[in-house]
Amino acid sequence: MTTSPAVPSGAAGDGPSISDEAAPRPVVRSEVLHRGRIVDLVRDDVDLGAAGTVTREYVVHPGAVAIVALDDHDRVLLLRQYRHPVRSRLWEVPAGLLDVDGEPPVLAAARELAEEADATAEQWHVLADFASSPGSSDEAVRVFLARGLGEVPVGSRHTRTGEEAGIEVRWVPLDEAVARVLDGSLHNPSAVVGVLAAAASRSGGWSSLRPADAPWPSRPGV
After folding, report:
1. Given the residues 112, 164, 168, 176, the one annotated as active site
2. 22 within 8 A of 36, measured Cβ to Cβ
3. Which of 10, 43, 60, 102 has a CA 20 to 30 Å removed from the CA of 222?
4. Contact status, residue 125 vs residue 106, Cβ threshold 8 Å
5. CA–CA separation, 163 vs 89, rounded Å?
């Protein structure tokens, strides 16, 4: 006979709600070590109170959006392109930077979907929000679900350059995409989060979806 492990005290609903919260600590000193074309490298001396002052270096990032485009056959749009930092061609969902001043995230997502995949969508919802690497970057990513898909007219399509010029497009059943995440075949964080979030939301009848303009606490100024 097997027995269930004991539940540690406080693990069954006691204490604060399971929700991240903004809790900035005082910055004693800050300097920009490198100012880049897209991101900056910053060093902060942070006052942690009783724990003392620590020095942390991190990347300041404009933020990004990603899109899980799902067609009427439950297939998700995946793109493969070269990513130099990891020296690999990765299967990803369409995504891009929040690099246009004043552009709402959902419009940035629509723009990226058109530019990277020549696709449009009539229905937009928020699937998930995540911090891509909170120990070394302040990048915040919002993942949208796009449905009611269509095509950008041929004459209005974006001319892709650089790594995007070699983008390969494939429509993959959502269940297969989930399997590829779980067997270690897919590594792009927006694809991993987006695919799993879409499958989880679908299993709940899509009741978890948020409006396209839902508050984004980690990007309050967007």
Report:
1. 164
2. no
3. 43
4. no
5. 10
The kind and range of the H/E element at 209 are none
Residues 6+ positions from 13 with CB-CB distance below 8 Å = none
Q: CA-CA distance, 78 to 171, in Å (whole number)?
A: 6
The residue type found at 109 is A
Predicted TM-score of the model (pTM): 0.89
| Model confidence at 9: pLDDT above 60 | no
Which residues is 41 bridged to in the sheet? 34, 59
Please confirm, yes or no, whether 164 is among the known catalytic residues. yes
Tokens of 172: 């993959």
Q: How far is the C-alpha of 218 from the C-alpha of 102, rounded, in Å?
A: 16
Instruction: Judge residue 63's burial from the number of C-beta atoms within 10 Å of its C-beta, 0-12 exposed, 13-18 middle, 19 or more buried.
Output: buried
Q: Strand 168-173 vs strand 27-35: parallel, antiparallel, or unpaired?
A: unpaired
pLDDT digits (tens, 9 = 90+) for 155-185: 878 788 777 778 899 999 999 999 999 999 9
Q: How far apart are the first and last CA of the chain?
A: 55
From the CB of residue 2, how many other CB atoms can be counted at a distance below 10 Å?
Answer: 4
Token pair recorded at residue 42: 């910053």
Reported as half-sphere exposure (CB side, CA atoms, 13 A), residue 61 has a value of 18
Q: Is the pLDDT of residue 95 over 70?
A: yes
- Which one-letter amino acid corresponds to residue 46? V
Q: What confidence tier does 1 reach under pLDDT thresholds 50, 70, 90?
A: low
Using CA of residue 43, residue 46, residue 52, residue 57, what is the dihedral sign? Answer: negative
